[in-house]
Amino acid sequence: MEGKVWLVGAGPGDPELITFKGMIRIAHVDVIVYDALCNPKLLSNAAPDCEIIFVGKQAGKHSMKQDDINALLAEKAREGKKVCRLKGGDPFVFGRGGEEALYLQERGIPFEVVPGVTSAVAVPAYAGIPVTHRNLATSVRIVTGHEDPTKPESQLDWAELAATSGTLVFLMGVHNLAAIAERLMTFGKSGDTPVALIANGTLPSQETVTGTLATIAVKAEAENVEPPAILVVGEVVSLREQLQWFEKRPLFGRKIVVTRARPQSSELLGKLQDLGADTIEAPTIRIENLFESEPMQQAVRDLGKFDWLIFTSANALRPLTHALVSQHLDARAFAGVKVAAIGPGTAREVVQMGIFPDLIPERFVAEALLEELAKTQPIKGQSFLIPRSEIARPDLVDGLRSRGGEVREVVAYKTLPEPLPDDLADRLDRGEIDLVTFTSSSTVTNFLAALPEDRRSELAKKVKAASIGPVTSDTLKANGIEIVLEAAESTIPGLLAAIVGHFRKP
Fold this sequence. Notes:
Layout: E1 4-9, H1 20-27, E2 31-34, E3 51-54, E4 57-58, E5 61-62, H2 66-78, E6 82-87, H3 97-106, E7 111-114, H4 119-126, E8 140-144, H5 158-163, E9 167-171, H6 177-186, E10 194-199, E11 207-212, H7 216-222, E12 229-233, H8 240-243, E13 255-258, H9 262-274, E14 278-281, E15 285-289, H10 294-301, E16 308-311, H11 317-326, E17 338-341, H12 344-352, H13 366-376, E18 383-389, H14 395-402, E19 406-417, H15 424-429, E20 435-438, H16 441-450, H17 456-460, E21 464-467, H18 470-478, E22 482-486, H19 492-503
Parallel strand pairs: 1-6, 1-7, 2-3, 2-6, 8-9, 13-14, 13-20, 16-17, 16-18, 18-19, 20-21, 21-22
Antiparallel strand pairs: 4-5, 9-12, 10-11, 10-12, 15-19
Helix pairs in contact: 2-3, 10-11, 13-14, 16-18
C-alpha cells in the first residue's frame, strides 16, 4: 500500500481553531509528527493505535533537526503509512512546510497541504487588533522575527518596512524585539507608532503588552514576556482598547480543575472554556456500566411490576437503557410505572428516553424527593426500583422503607478511581490552581485518594473547592477542604453561575 503525507496546519493554539479537514486528517492517519506549537489537546482525536512522534523545536533547543524530520516523513510514508505532519499555524507561513513538501516531491512521495489558521491574523484578532482596517491600514506584511536585524546580509528591506503605512506582523521575534524596534526607527518609523506584543495568543494564558516602538522593548522586559509571541506594529493597535474581547471574558486565565467523570465533564469543561477559564481535566472517577449483571437484567424484566422507578443520577440511565436493549425491550416497558428524577440534568436525560418524569423535586437531594413522594400518595405499600451506584448514600432507601415502601436497589454502575494528571499535585503546591470543582461526594474522596500519600494532608489544605451542593459540601468539610463557593442550585448551570459570581470583579 502506498503511503502519503498530509502537511496540516494546527492553527494558532486554541484547539477549536483547527480546520474541519485538519481534524479529519488527525483522526484517520497511522502516524502524527507534531511540533511544539501544536496544542497537544488535538492529539486526543487520533486513533488509539496511531503512532505519535514529537519533533518540536523550542527556543534554544531542538528536538530534531529539519533534515531528520524530512527523512522521518519519507520513511513512514515508504512503509505504506498515512502520515499527518502537524504544524503550528499554517504550514506554509514560516513553518518550513515548503521545504518538507519539496523534499517529498523530489522523492516521489504523495503529499497534500491542509492550510491552517495563521497566527499572524488570528492572534491579533484574539487581542482585539484587526490587521487591516479602513483608514488605518489597507495592507499587512508578515515578517520573520528570527532574523537578526543588525546582520549586514539581511534579506529584509528595512527602509521599505519602515516606510509602509500598513500593518507589520513579526512572528517569533521576542529575542530580537529591541533590535527590530530600533531598526524600524533608524529607517524612519516614528517612535510613537502603536505596538502590541502578544504572547501565548488564543490560549487562556494569552498576555498582551502594548506600547510604542520606542517603549515596547522596555515594557516587554518588565513584564518578562516569553516566546511564543507576535509583534504587531501599526495604527490598528490603537483599536485594541475598544475591540479587545478575549481577555475580558469573566473567567479569563483562571485555572480551574474539573474532577467529574470524563463522559459527564464535557458540558462543564466547555462552558468554563467559553467563559475564558484555563481548564485542567482531572476526572477522579470512571463510570463502569453494569447493565450486563444479572440483577440489572432481572430488574428490567420486572420493570412493569413496580409502582415507581427512581433515578438519582443520570449515570443510572445508561445502564438501564442498555439492559432494556439487551432484552429487546423499549420505552413500552415503562407502561404503568411512575418515574421520578432528582435534578434537571437527570430529568432531561429521562425525557430523551421518551419518558416524561412524573416527579422532579424542587431541591435536588434525596430528602426532598421523600417529601414530594409523601405528598403525592402514601408511600406505604408502594414498590420502588432504584438503579444506582454501589456507594450511593442510604438516606433515600432508608427513608422509603421506614415509611412502609418496598424497595429494590440494584447496582447499575460503579465509580472507579482515576489517577490525577502528573503535574497537578505540584501545581496545587505552588498555588497555581484557582479552583477545583466537585460535583459529587465520590469526586471528593477519589480526588483526595489520588493525591500523593505523603503530601495528601498538606495539599488538601491548598485546595479551593467549588461544590455543586450541600451533600458534596458535607464531604468536603469532613475532609478539611476549604469551600470557597457552593452552587445555590445543585446543577451544572448553578455551579457555573456561582463560579462566575465568585470571580466577578467588584
